[in-house]
Amino acid sequence: MTTAATEGPAAGSLVGARVVRFLLTLVITLAASVLLVGWAAGAEALVRLHPAYPAMMPSTAVALLLISAAMLRHRRAAEMGRTARVSVWTAAAAAAVIASGDIAATVLGLARSVDTLIWPQIARRSTDAVSTATALCLLLAAGGVATLARPAGRWADGAAVTALTVGLLLALVAVVGYLFDADALYRVSFFTAMALHTALAFAALFVAMLVLLGARGWMAILMGPEPGSAGARRLLPAVVLIPILLCYAALRATEGGMMDADFRLSLLAILTVTLLAATVLRNAALENRASRAMAQITDSLRVAVNDKQLLLREVYHRVKNNLQQINALLMIEARQVEDPKAKLAFRATASRIVALSRVHTLMMSTPEPSRLGVRTFLQDLCGAIGDGAAVGLTYEGPERTIDVDMAVTLGLLVNELVEQRTGASRVELRYVAGDAGDAFRLRFPDGGGGGRASGARARIVASLVRQLRGEITTDADGSVDVRLGGRT
Amino acid sequence: MGSSSVVIVDDDFLIATFLADVCADLGYEVAGSAGDAEQAIETIVKAQPTFALLDMRLGGALDGVDVAQRVRAAGVQPILVFITGSNEPETLARIAALGAHPVLIKPIEPSALARTLALAQPA
């Protein structure tokens, strides 16, 4: 199963990774091409960086070109067609064959290597051969580029990151070996004859592949957006470069007679400790500054949220005040009206306003004023409506939260259904919050059940049920069932 | 019930009028009404009613609890029924600090007011 989340880095970093990949791969391609021209033209200056250093072998250059071509062809696995994927794998396989041939020649002690098969004149120089480290790096690079072309997978990604990391370390050992003492490097048979530009090309190639592989393995820590990753990106260059540069400076100082070799170690140790400690402290200072800035932002946000909640509560309070005044006006008017039907209509309207008002009362006291708990809301509502009848609530299931609009509609509906009773002094409301949707039932246990609503109330009930995308049924005893289909 | 009297304290005169109507319908004597704290203290101390319906928000520096404390300090002990527009914990805690008193949350249903007054009525 491949998902966008496991395809690799996010869009922004993906673009950055592709730019890095393109630039590094272009440099490697150009270097390998120049080297092949040098071999073809017999130009020594083009095949080795220094007369004392070994040359990059043509087979290595060809393999690097194949891998570079595969890298340039690479897209995200989801974007790669079958043809592109097969071409990448073919290039990787060809590079792996070359590397395997070189390893086999070394292991079996063959006089003829891949290069001497193609270019017999190369055999005249003993140092001009593919080193074991080079062949191994080629194999790792071929495996890495082949892995890049397949959909993401936990184990494959882990193996790829490990292989590419090992390859990068091998290349860096060779590069640093050249920096300090090439002869010492050649004395390690594994690295003998690995050219400097080969080592540099591999270092660039493995970095490009790791960047392209994206946020996986330790690269996920390095490339991540979190503060820890930002700190790692800040620290890593210093942690890598300080020891190398100090060692190089100490080596040159010793060779120049500026210091004793034994004292060099002491100085090197203390300088390394000092500079790394300074780097750590500098990073701590930056983290502290960022933390203080974050705390200020958090405080500002907290103040803004509090202000918003206070404002919302004030709005609810004012709306509620207006509803109270409307309710008072209706009740005062109802008192003056003689006609029982008109009096009833006034009282019914007043009770609807009470139901509306309850929503705003709760809004003023909930931690999240835009959402209400259904159980809390119904408990409060049942205590406020009924006008003489006791409305009891039984709530089953988990607490739900609903927004203001839904609370208003639900509150009005419950109020209408309670108010349509004909003389019942007790009303039981049983609300069930279920997985398949919420439902409630109104019963009138001492008789005087609601019966069917008529006139304006019937229209109001129908509108409210429709608003809740629900269904309503009424039993013969006047009990009412409502199944809610809307958001709960 | 004929001997029970009520003073209504609410800075909203519409609501005060409505409460006065309901109390009168229930058979209570409305001994007075007030729209601010100073007027409320004066009216309650003078009328010495059975009940004082006290709105919490009175539009000034003093609220319903302050009125109750000053009335008590003046030696008048009406049965206090607090009225509030909100059920915010701070408001309810402030009332509770004064003792156990009924609290009605606006808008007030006539039946709820009747029930509350009947329950609080001295035997």
Could you explain how this protein is built, in words?
The complex is a heterodimer of chains A (488) and B (123). With 488 residues, chain A is α+β, with helices and mostly antiparallel strands. Chain A has 16 helices and 7 strands. Chain A has helices at residues 11-41, 44-47, 58-73, 82-108, 114-118, 132-148, 154-180, 182-186, 196-213, 218-223, 227-255, 261-336, 340-365, 374-384, 404-419, 455-467; strands at residues 371-373, 390-396, 401-403, 426-434, 437-443, 471-474, 480-483. In chain A, a hairpin with a 2-residue loop joins β4 (426-434) and β5. In chain A, α6 (132-148) packs parallel to α9, α7 (154-180) runs antiparallel to α9 and α11 (227-255) runs antiparallel to α12 (261-336). In chain A, 35% of the residues are buried. Chain B is of the alpha/beta class. Chain B has a 5-stranded parallel β-sheet, with helices on both faces. In chain B, β4 (79-84), α4 and β5 form a beta-alpha-beta unit. In chain B, 46% of the residues are buried. The mean pLDDT of chain B is 90. Chain A binds chain B through residues 313, 317, 320-321, 323-325, 327-329, 331-332, 335, 350-351, 353-354, 357, 361-362, 364-365, 380, 384-388, and chain B through 12, 14-15, 17-18, 21-22, 25, 85-89, 105-107, 109-112.
**How many β-strand runs of chain B?**
5
Continuous helix count of chain A: 16
End-to-end Cα distance of chain A, whole Å, is 33 Å
Task: Characterize the overall form of chain A.
Answer: elongated
Oligomer: heterodimer
Spell out the key features of this protein:
heterodimer, A: 488 residues, alpha+beta, 16 helices, 7 strands, 67% helix, elongated, disordered N terminus, B: 123 residues, alpha/beta, five-stranded parallel β-sheet, 5 helices
